[in-house]
């Protein structure tokens, strides 16, 4: 499965073509799905272009994207940078009026289990974000409901394409006790393509998009998420 990550916590100063508004997210999602994406991850934004979990912003983004990509699963972030207090993040999840198909929870962040439990209570699938170089794997595997997640996101923070595959192998080894859960392996910035190639070779789920990388494999600037998805499809066997 190839997921497209449409925007992430980036801002327009980093990428002039970054989709921010619900209408922009919808256009980007439609093009990415046409290019071959089979799942969508996005970060709802407020009027200032900042990530938010506020119900109105989440509802607007999800509604717009689903209108142009019916039947394609759509997920959102619950990153702590949106709302530092875990109890408040959980309260925001409880107040959502339009529910995503899944939401990512970063297990190196305080309160991950609280947010995850709230998502389960609402019937929302969990993407368990496990960052390399952190205690996230240990914390996640110690959670009594770890077997209930939709998938594990093995997130490689090593941005050196020469060493990132080795870092990825180490993290996958740490996650071996969670073997019953599907794994989506992805990298970021300069290492994104090397990690995607590794994920493809291992037949793991993978993702690509402007959240993870702003360049195509040849180093040229990616204009759109669809460009990145097409490039990824050219790599996948």
Task: Provide a concise account of the structure shown.
With 237 residues, the chain is an alpha/beta fold. The protein has helices at 22-35, 55-68, 86-95, 112-121, 136-141, 164-174, 192-201, 225-235, and strands spanning 2-5, 39-42, 74-77, 102-106, 125-131, 151-155, 183-186, 205-208.
Write a concise keyword list for the protein shown above.
globular, alpha/beta, single chain, TIM Barrel, eight-stranded parallel β-barrel, 237 residues
Structure overview:
This protein has a single domain (2-235), classed as Alpha-Beta Barrel (TIM Barrel). Strand 6, helix 6 and strand 7 form a beta-alpha-beta unit. The relative contact order is 0.15. The model has no long low-confidence stretch (mean pLDDT 96). The chain contains eight helices and eight strands, in the order E-H-E-H-E-H-E-H-E-H-E-H-E-H-E-H. Helix 1 runs parallel beside helix 2 (55-68) and helix 1 (22-35) runs parallel beside helix 8 (225-235). Helix content is 36%, strand content 16%. By secondary structure, the chain is α/β, with parallel strands linked by helices.
